[in-house]
Amino acid sequence: MISLAAARALIAENISPFSAKAAPLAESFGRVLRQDVFAKEDLPAFDRSAMDGYAIAADDNSEKFRIVGETQPGATPKLKIRHGECARIFTGAIIPEGASQVVMQEHVRVEGNFIVPLKKHGGTHVRRCGEDARKGDLLLKSGARLGAGELALLASLGVTRPKISPPVRVAHFATGNELIAPEQKLKPGQIRDSNSTLVAAFVRQFGGEIFKQERVADDFDLLLKKSRGLKKSFDLLLVSGGASVGDYDFGKKLLGALGFQIHFEKISLRPGKPLVFATRGKQAAFILPGNPVSHFVTLHVAVRLALEKFSGANISWPLAKTPLAENFDFRPDARETFWPARVKIENGELVARALRWQSSGDVTGLTGANALLQLDAGAEAPKAGDVVSVLLLEVP
Ligand code: AMP
Ligand code: MG
């Protein structure tokens, strides 16, 4: 049995990022950027007005300014502003030669062809050339996930085909004779397969794409046949159930038969001790303990790292400190514990609340989980008000 930290090190060491591809911006949302992006020119590329108003020379203290022309966004002004003169100007327009300040239109009185500034207070209202970034500045690093803000930056830089990682191709088998599809009617002894839905949502959230997902009975030969059939079509194989040592837990044997090299098969982790990780060439596989809570935890603390490594993403392990809102039913354990929790704002303060966790099979406690309370091996139960460690699940 190894620690979670050691297990994560093995995952990180044994998966390498696959090659990047250039793709249009419209297809890059949520993908991982695989190139450093530099400013090709100064940003902004010219002095521009930050306000609608009148452009004057900042050191011109005339009482009145004659309006000698107008300059609009997108136009190249041919004006030259002299002493006692101004130009009508709009937000985003180039500051004309001779001008260095924009007086807001709210701060002038217009008298025919003249303006009288009522106040020329603070700020020039000019966005200076290069004030956001200088030509050659590093603006986005390889490994960043492309959200709305990052894509907007790429568009503004003219990087229209960034190099990105394609989605990680994931195949998933949910094993168990007791499993039925969620829409089917339960017979005694059966349970609805919730892990397939959980895995599909998780994979989608963290940069993968499920291209194959199937429930399979506890039948080793059948599972082997189906897995062999996948050949090289996947990057990551996930098998739910069959990770522990019951008579029907054949995950390890399966991976052996498929030619995978096993890197670990047990972690000192609660829940989720029986977790198997293996690789075959560039492909990786996990056998996940079937219990829904174990599933949820191992997906976040182990599988997510594999998805990040494949796609060359920055590794996320956002462990933060926050007070515990109330006591919960925690008993010290020899394993490191990750307890489903919700971090929320209460009375203006961020606090963590442990969610209900009756057993590893208890799905009712997973609703609203946006964090995992991290408790060291052997740690005493924290009390309300104690500062605890939480792994935030949605922050990259
Ligand atoms: P296993 O890891 O196969 O021993 O399964 C552990 C527990 O999780 C058993 O109670 C299973 O019935 C349950 N379980 C396994 N797979 C699923 C699934 N896909 N959805 C919901 N529960 C499952
Ligand atoms: Mg099973």
What tags apply to this protein structure?
binds magnesium ion, alpha+beta, 17% helix, 6 helices, 396 residues
Describe this structure in words.
This protein is 17% helix and 30% strand. The protein has six helices and 26 strands. The protein has helices at residues 4-14, 148-157, 195-205, 220-230, 251-257, 292-310; strands spanning 21-22, 37-38, 48-49, 53-56, 65-71, 85-89, 101-104, 108-111, 114-117, 126-127, 138-140, 163-164, 168-175, 179-180, 191-192, 208-216, 236-240, 261-264, 269-270, 276-280, 283-288, 319-323, 336-346, 349-354, 371-375, 387-392. Helix 3 (195-205) runs parallel beside helix 6. It binds adenosine monophosphate and magnesium ion. Magnesium ion binds next to loops.
Blueprint (SSEs and pairs):
Blueprint: H1 4-14, E1 21-22, E2 37-38, E3 48-49, E4 53-56, E5 65-71, E6 85-89, E7 101-104, E8 108-111, E9 114-117, E10 126-127, E11 138-140, H2 148-157, E12 163-164, E13 168-175, E14 179-180, E15 191-192, H3 195-205, E16 208-216, H4 220-230, E17 236-240, H5 251-257, E18 261-264, E19 269-270, E20 276-280, E21 283-288, H6 292-310, E22 319-323, E23 336-346, E24 349-354, E25 371-375, E26 387-392
Helix pairs in contact: 1-6, 3-6
The structure holds adenosine monophosphate (AMP) and magnesium ion (MG).
Adenosine monophosphate binds at residues 174, 176, 178-179, 191, 193-196, 240-244, 246, 289-292, 361.
